Amino acid sequence: MRASLIQIDVNEDESVESRRRRVASLVRAQAGADLVVLPELWTTGAFAYEGFGSDAEPVDGPTHEAMAKAASDAGVWLHAGSIPERADDGTLYNTSLVFSASGDLIAAYRKIHRFGFDKGEAVLMGAGRELVTVRLPETTLGLGTCYDLRFPELFRGLVDAGAETLVLPAGWPERRRAHWTLLAQARAVENQAFVLACGTAGTHAGVPQAGHSIVVDPWGEVLAEAGAGEEVLTVEFDPGKVATTREQFPALKDRVLGLEPPRRP
Questions:
Q1: Class of domain 2-252
Q2: Do the record's keywords include Cytoplasm (predicted)?
Q3: In a designed cystine with 230, which of 9, 140, 142, 223 is the match (CB 3.0 to 4.6 A)?
Q4: How much is the pLDDT for 12?
């Protein structure tokens, strides 16, 4: 299976409309890949909080239109990263879109864990409530977004739902890049799954981005890693390695659930 992660430079001097056209062209250039992955909030920038409201769009808005056509033109499955979604009731969500190779919208995932604590995304956007998996011909994807990477129970839930390849678009800051690499490898090892983590380059609202998109195999081996700038990271991997790894080292079978809380003295 061939996957291409497009690490987009989100330049504040480039308009959303111009970036959307440019990214669609980059997607079309990946014809021959099985899966293409884009980063989190690449239309506006993950830390450009002031633009969330003005750049928000419905799921079937202009980004949907552009990415559906790009996926169809290239004949690739496309995880189109995430957009600031405005729901029918006016609530904003950080929502990922996945398109089939024919350009059909197959899944939308609203980010569950919102970053910012008491500001930014955490207060401006609603939280998703549903785990989302997507069945491709070669593998089953489990969807997460950026800050989700810090919460292993989400990915364990995705594995329980059949996920074999964990896909994570992100706008991860450079100052915590070591965590990005460490956590991507940890999620791969503990779930015996591939991890495809696609970040952004550039600077969002004064926050330098980590870049370094990464593909990790079920044993935690890094198969490919990007640099800091805009880059297309393409890797070939065998989805069958998930089943082989889980058979050779069946750690998931030894999980103990429903433990009782500690007794108070």
A1: alpha beta
A2: no
A3: 9
A4: 86
